[in-house]
Write a structure and sequence with these properties.
754 residues, alpha+beta, Aldehyde Oxidoreductase, domain 4, Aldehyde Oxidoreductase, domain 3, 3 domains, seven-stranded mixed β-sheet, six-stranded mixed β-sheet, 21 helices, globular
Length: 754
């Protein structure tokens, strides 16, 4: 059934309210069940042996001693995970990442796994497995990996996006270009040009809950998987493909999720747990340690970026270009492409060009991290924007406003924008009390803009009416930030009932049609759309049932404020029927009342934000303290403002950590040196001020309520906002993230001696 997806102005009664979260009590009392909280009779403990080398040929794996250990029930290597991908290179890369095939490609790459009766036995078995390695040259730095003569990570890779197609293997998996106009002509027309290079280090999403799953595969080929994930339907499809199972015979149930931020969109251990269970014929529980999470799951890219911006003295940007080099880890992906797409997306530029390089290194497979690739590109571009503004003597906010994109702008990556919120966010920054507050000694203020695409995708939802008039909403998108409350508000809004009458649950993969992974800020946008359409279909049914009860034409029945009413003077004696009234007589009027909707949710509105940051830098130690922070972002329509503000604040907090402290540190041997929260320092409460928020609502015409995704854009500006603030406070331009005390002191020293 076709549905009108366009935005219509309306007065909301439930949407926009700050209602209690339905999962709140369970989470604060410990009743909520996360990935490691489930068990099964007869379960075994899984454990994985990981490579201690950044790059090595696996000459032989001897499991004989481990197999003889009492309590060991199964051991697998890549031989137990044969290639069933039928030439699908992307799926084969997932298989190879889950278990090394002939070569270990990074420190922490899985090479074997065991299932035993308990954890001590499993750990002892791992020590008994003997692996004969031939250590190979490695490369972990993105610029070094691009040099001639660098060790080749994947010999089959030939750089795509180059003509003629190269014949030699390369670590550059693809080169992508975006833009329009004549950039060189734009630079010739400029009065001022700033050209600068930047580096950002690799960071992890830092979710508190490690990856965990319980897998069970029976001799009949039926399987079950309980797992912490952002997309259990995609996990089902991937795992079934890798193990040669029929998709319908693998049931996947998602647990509560203790943080994901993009890091739980890929399988890491799940196919291994299923293979162990199949071999042992018993359930296998596999929980990663924190060290394993850091060494062997997907962080973001480290980058090296060159930016060049030219402008007239009046502030008009005449030309802008960027070369963005992103490392993908040991497997090719699209992170450099995304960086090239997002770099200048905030601005209306006549001459712009970006080139993205996706580069392989001997590091873990890179995964999404909240607006993947955009924060690094924004750091480089927004830092350069400040320098251009300073060079022409223009206020940085006014400079951005003069060049900001608006409705009708041809974006730097291709599409023409509809209604967007970048200028309103900048106007809000300009007028915010934060921008007028006085700064003290050694303090500096910075601001920056950010952009994210947002996605829609495949979504499927059910609404069922209970016999007492309460409503069950069933969704298949994982709740990573409050979507169950938002979906309940949307269902209540459409049906005209109280929020408390609605219960929203997340179905397993056998109970609902396919839903794409919760990523790309698609959860509320896409699932909300499906709930709206399902509720409207249910209202048609409710009107029909009321008409049947009264024996009148359905056209004489309206649904308003949660009740069916007969319209017209001839029906004035008919008492309105509530949901409970209609539900109670459902068996006599046609049976159970339910509605379903499946949609490919197109029209996800792009999202923009502008952030303000104040810092204080100690010139003696290089230590930086964030003393004030403000997030201003366009939400389209805030379904549940508490959650929207939480997303704003969470993204900013993670971005602040990325800007000041967080980084993967690899030694000369290619091994990760700080695989734990003691040495990889994420922000804690004492590191952060209260993060102020301002929600703007510029409706997205592609959604019935005007919704835009909000979860990702908020991490895009912080690297640059903090960077501009630190540069202003310290009096020296910082170009390398994180801006740790040693880097700040080094920059200050170079300035004094240079």
């Amino acid at each position: 059934m076709a549905h009108d997806t366009s935005f219509t102005n309306q007065n909301f009664k439930m949407v926009g309210q700050r209602r209690p979260r339905p999962d709140g009590v369970d989470k604060v009392t410990g009743r909520a069940r996360y990935g490691a909280d489930v068990s099964a009779p007869g379960q075994l403990v899984g454990a994985i042996l990981r490579s201690p080398h950044a790059h090595a040929t696996i000459k032989k794996i001897d499991v004989s001693k481990a197999a003889k250990l009492a309590g060991v029930k199964a051991i697998i290597t890549s031989a137990d995970l044969p290639d069933l991908t039928n030439g699908n290179r992307g799926m084969f890369d997932i298989l190879e990442n889950c278990m090394a095939r002939g070569r270990a490609l990074y420190d922490g790459h899985a090479v074997a796994a065991v299932a035993a009766i308990d954890a001590p036995t499993a750990k002892k078995a791992l020590k008994l497995i003997k692996v004969d390695y031939e250590v190979l040259p490695h490369v972990t730095d993105v610029d070094e990996a691009m040099k001639p003569g660098a060790p080749i990570v994947q010999p089959h890779i030939r750089t795509s996006g180059v003509e003629p197609p190269p014949k030699k293997a390369s670590n550059i998996s693809q080169i992508t270009n975006f833009g329009h106009g004549d950039v060189e002509a734009g630079f010739r027309a400029a009065d001022v040009i700033v050209e600068k290079s930047y580096k950002t280090e690799q960071t992890h999403q830092g979710y508190i809950e490690p990856h965990a799953c319980l897998a069970s595969v029976g001799p009949d080929g039926q399987g079950e998987l309980w797992v912490t994930t952002q997309g259990h339907f995609v996990f089902r499809n991937t795992c079934a493909t890798l193990l040669g199972m029929e998709i319908a015979k693998l049931k996947v149930t998602s647990s509560e999720i203790g943080g994901g931020f993009g890091g739980k969109t890929h399988v890491w251990t799940e196919p291994v747990a299923l293979a162990l269970s199949r071999k042992a014929n018993r359930p296998v529980k596999l929980v990663m340690s924190r060290e394993e999470v850091f060494r062997a799951t997907g962080p973001t890219s480290s980058t090296s970026i060159d930016v060049k911006i030219g402008a007239k003295k009046d502030g008009t940007i005449t030309g802008a270009s960027a070369s963005l080099r992103y490392q993908d880890g040991a497997f090719p992906s699209i992170w450099g492409m995304l960086g090239a797409m997002t770099a200048f997306a905030c601005y209306d530029l006549k001459n712009v060009k970006t080139t993205g390089y996706d580069v392989l290194v001997n590091r873990p497979k890179v995964a999404a991290y909240r607006a993947p690739s955009a924060p690094m590109a924004a750091f480089a571009v927004e830092s350069t924007m400040d320098q251009v503004a300073a060079k022409i003597g223009m206020d940085p906010v006014e400079f951005r406003l003069k060049n900001a994109a608006s409705e009708g702008t041809l974006s730097s990556y291709g599409p023409t924008y509809g209604p967007i919120g970048i200028k309103p966010t900048l106007e809000a920054v300009k007028n915010h009390p934060h921008m007028k507050a006085k700064l003290g000694k050694n303090q500096g203020r910075g601001m920056a803009c950010g952009f994210w695409f947002n996605f829609g995708g495949q979504t499927c939802s059910d609404i069922n009416l209970g016999a007492d008039g309460t409503v069950s909403v069933t969704i298949g998108t994982i709740d990573v930030g409050g979507s169950r409350a938002s979906m309940s508000l949307i269902a209540a809004e459409e049906l005209g009932i109280a929020y408390e009458q609605v219960k929203c649950t997340i179905a397993d993969t056998s109970s609902l049609g396919h839903n794409d992974t919760t990523e790309g800020s698609r959860g509320t946008f896409s699932t909300g759309m499906a709930i709206i359409f399902a509720a409207r279909d249910m209202i048609k049914t409710l009107r029909e049932r009321a008409a049947k009860t009264w024996g009148i034409p359905v056209d004489d029945v309206e649904w308003k404020d949660g009740k069916a009413s007969a319209i017209g003077a001839k029906h004035k004696k008919l008492t309105p029927l509530s949901l409970a009234n209609i539900a109670a007589s459902a068996a006599k009027t046609g049976g159970p009342i339910a509605a379903h909707n499946e949609v490919v949710a197109d029209g996800a509105g792009v999202s923009f934000a502008s952030h303000i940051c104040d810092v204080e830098v100690d010139p003696e130690t290089g230590a930086t303290k964030v003393i004030r922070y403000t997030v201003i972002q366009d939400a389209g329509k805030a379904i549940h403002p508490d959650y929207v503000e939480g997303q704003f604040q969470g993204g900013a907090a993670q971005g602040i950590g990325w800007a000041l402290n967080e980084e993967y540190i690899y030694g000369a041997d290619g091994r990760l040196q700080n695989a734990g929260f003691l040495d990889y320092r994420i922000p804690v409460c004492s590191d952060l001020p209260f993060i102020d928020t301002q929600i703007l609502e510029i409706p997205n015409p592609g959604h019935p309520y005007g919704v835009r995704g909000v979860g990702e854009t908020s991490i895009v500006p912080p690297l640059a906002a903090v960077g501009n603030a630190v540069s202003n406070a310290a009096g020296v331009r910082m170009t390398h993230v994180p801006m740790s005390p040693p880097r700040i002191l080094s920059a200050l020293k170079a300035q004094r001696t240079g």
